[in-house]
Amino acid sequence: MKLALAPIQGMTIAHYRNLYADIFGSIDKYYAPFIATTNPIKASTSLFRDILPESNSSTINIVPQLLSNNGSDFRSFASTIVNMGYKEINWNIGCPYPMVTKKKKGSGILPYPDMIKEFLDEVCLDKSYNLTVKMRLGLNNLDEGIKAIELLNDYPLKGVIIHGRTGIQKYEGSVDLDSFEVLYSSCKHEITYNGDIFSYADFKNISERFPTINNFMLGRGALRDPFLASTIKGISIPTVEKIVKLRDFHDGIYKHYKNILSGDKHLCDKMKEFWMYMSFHIDPSGKFIKKVKKCRTNKAYLDITNQIFDSMLKELYLTR
Ligand SMILES: Cc1cc2nc3c(=O)[nH]c(=O)nc-3n(C[C@H](O)[C@H](O)[C@H](O)COP(=O)(O)O)c2cc1C
Fold first, then answer.
1. C-alpha of residue 314 to centroid of ligand 1, in Å
2. What number does the ligand 1 atom closest to the CA of 90 have?
3. Count of alpha carbons within 13 Å of 37, Cβ hemisphere only?
4. How far is the centre of ligand 1, averaged over its atoms, from the C-alpha of 182 (Å)?
5. Torsion angle of alpha carbons 261, 264, 268, 271, nearest 10°?
């Protein structure tokens, strides 16, 4: 069984992935957030900054992802990525955000099988890397997903990741496992399941329902609980060690953003995003996150985070 970390724009950047792998591990593949292709003449090298080999640990398996509906632009971007040494490139046809879908990109391409075919006819001429796809059930409905899968079956893909919601659902409601099953059973490529695995119990339910699936992608669940992957893999970590790891992870992320962001406000805002995920398990009552949200200065922010980790340790020793 293989676990992948989902790409989450703004969060799972190179530094996050490197630290995550180093501190928590148990993830087999890290998908980088999408790079939107443009006309190659207009493409700046900064677009590729997040996947530059010098910014990424050579010991972790990283898959760059492209958002595109233009085969020729995709090929040009793919060639740059292959020259960096990558062996797999993922095509994002799952992004649900209207500013993307209205341009017929992300899940916005799913209602247009002719565009998917034209794109793949062009892109699959290049055999210098493995192409994988990350998609949703459709933009508006499952019929779109079924037509897309029938098309994908005709191309030499190395895998398809399916998130069990339509694009218009964004992240609302729950994943539709019956519809996922329809796509899964009609897809001839290796499937990775993605969607709403927030706990070991969620993983167990899904893996019991789909016992032949060997690949799972964890997104928000792994950001909220960075020990989710190790729990799924049956690795148990003592609580005190977990607290030390969480603190190291936090400190590493904080240090990175302190170096690259200017001004206390930007830094505090970025760290609030980090805590929006991390506070789920660490601070279920919401007591600390409320204070984190109010921080305007580094000093106030550091005081609160010290309190968070100190209180975790105190609680641990009091319950012993
Ligand atoms: C803020 C945010 C940013 C995301 N960015 C990307 C992205 O760059 N590429 C992508 O394929 N999916 C992206 N996703 C979708 C996730 O990779 C994943 O498919 C989604 O969160 C569902 O998985 P989960 O229920 O395990 O979180 C993003 C999701 C969120 C919430």
1. 35
2. 11
3. 26
4. 22
5. 30
From the CA of 127, how far away is ligand 1's center (Å)? 27
Mutate to test the pocket of ligand 1, among 8, 30, 280 (most ligand atoms within 8 A of CB): 8
Give the number of the atom of ligand 1 that is nearest the alpha carbon of residue 161. 19
Nearest CA to ligand 1 atom 31: 8
**Residue 312 CB–ligand 1 contact under 6 Å:** no
Count of C-beta atoms within a 10 Å radius of residue 201: 9
Chain centroid to CA 183: how far?
21
Separation of CA 255 and ligand 1 centre (Å): 25
Task: Tell me how far the alpha carbon of residue 219 lies from the centroid of ligand 1, in angstroms.
Answer: 6
Task: Please report, in tens digits, the pLDDT of each residue of the chain (320 residues total).
Answer: 999 999 999 999 999 999 999 999 999 999 999 999 999 888 899 999 999 999 999 999 999 999 999 999 999 999 999 999 999 999 999 999 999 999 999 999 999 999 999 999 999 999 999 999 999 999 999 999 999 999 999 999 999 999 999 999 999 999 999 999 999 999 999 999 999 999 999 999 999 999 999 999 999 999 999 999 999 999 999 999 999 999 999 999 999 999 999 999 999 999 999 999 999 888 888 888 999 999 999 999 999 999 999 988 888 776 65
CB 47 within 8 A of CB 35: yes
Phi and psi angles of residue 224, each rounded to the nearest 5 degrees, phi first:
-70, -45
Smallest CA separation from ligand 1 atom 21, residue: 219
Single pTM value for the model = 0.97
